[in-house]
Design a protein that fits this description.
Elements lengths: L1 H24 L16 H20 L3 H7 L3 H13 L4 E10 L2 E11 L13 E13 L2 E9 L1 H7 L7
Antiparallel strand pairs: 1-2, 2-3, 3-4
Amino acid sequence: MYRRNRIALMVGLASLLLVAVFLFSSCVAADGTVYGLQPVTANTMAANKQFILDYFAALNQDKSPATVDKYVADEVLKHHIDLFETAFPGYQLTAKEMIAEGDTVFVRAGCTGVHNGDMSGIAPTGKSIDIEIALTYRIADGKIVDHWMLFDQLTVLQQIGVMPTP
């Protein structure tokens, strides 16, 4: 009985392995890339970094919808740009560090501006900000299609004078 169960288990595992090999091998192209994904090379990652540098340069000159639409497909990012431009007209971004992996680019950036517009109900103070932002962009078809952004909102509120500094 023990031998029969052991043989059945081995046959079952071998069958499962064959099914897995068949399924996963049918997803891989002859050049080794997975179907549905663009092959990623060092050139692609360098091009993605340059795309973000070009995007920052364009945004620092003009934040009009036409300029933003040239680089951005992500509607949430477009909204963030509009909100920040309202509160800090003419704000500037500076890439301090960039890391690219596949279709994703991480940027540690500096952001400077002057609070000369409404910021979610906070009246303009005329005070300057100088903050760091962590940005992650996903690029597809020559545009930013996804983004993640982290920055210290408390520091912004302290720099514009609406929150006391310790």
